[in-house]
Predict the 3D structure of the following.
Amino acid sequence: MNNFTFYNLVKILFGKGTISKTGTEIPQGAKILLTYGGGSIFKNGVYDQVKESVKDFEVLEFGGIEPNPHYETLMKAVEIAKNEKIDFLLSVGGGSVLDGTKFIAAAVYHQGNDPWDILANRAPVEKALPIGAVLTLPATGSEMNGGAVITRVEIQEKLVFGSDLVMPKFSVLDPEVIFSLPDRQVANGIVDAFVHVTEQYLTYPVNSPIQDRFAESIMQTLIEEGPKVLANRTDYDSAANFMWSATMALNGLIGVGVPQDWATHMIGHELTAFHGIDHGRTLCIVLPGIMKVFADQKKEKIIQLGERVFKVQGRTDEQKIENTISAVVYFFESVGVPTRLPEYGVPAETIDRICARFEKRGYKIGEKANIGPKEIRMILEDRL
């Protein structure tokens, strides 16, 4: 196991009825900017619960944060936060709303000319507004980490940044919010969380049995509980298990002391940037290609995944690897998520555009930093 330093200071309020406690976690006298997305919180009652909880605060609102939050939209919120002297941000929505809120928190205090430098040039986050979160869609794990992914529409770029300073002070997780979610969002959340685990697991062995078995338990829970949620949205226990799995998938715990990949995400972000494909669905396209092209490099962990999580068999290692890849694809498709580029209307020409973008960036990705334009082409051509 590799050396590591780990801490996570996000306070989690988990369970039914916890949304009503939101206001008790915010400093008295804070001036709040409440952020949200397309308006589903008005239909499912979450907005009313939050507003009741913060009725003793001065609250301004900023809605319309998109799935794959747009830099252009978020900069409008940054101006409001500056002009109104906001001192607390409250994100009410899914991971995209929270990612966008994290960017707002950092951009308010950015000293350069363009806050996009936080993403494009890794400009350090020196200070950020405090954030609280009420989660309405389990998927990204953003409620318990300091990462965020932002899209700049005008240049078709989707980039990531991270800072401990934008980790939420608290996150409220009430599984009952899942009851009103459509199938597509639930399915996206299931596969998104699953791939978050594989990015920290499907690399190479470093004798880390605790992290391996933590990761395997999360994947097994998603495989078992995800379909139950899809079949019966009001199954509270399954909803709770799904929600906590998504949080545990990316709160840092399973990634300490082990190599991490994240190539699936880096390539998947380009499919979203160019074609607007749901984030979770891009991951289901890319991961099987990475497993196939890098089967030798990831051999031990692919076989371990197959044997421990999917119970696959095979006379040879090659058969076990092939059967494991097939099991992963079957799982994705069993929850309604297609896994090939043509199923999303993506033409072969997009592969050229993605490879050119990585060529321009000049660095390679993956746990061994050996995935460049040539390898990305092989991965994506496998998904045609």
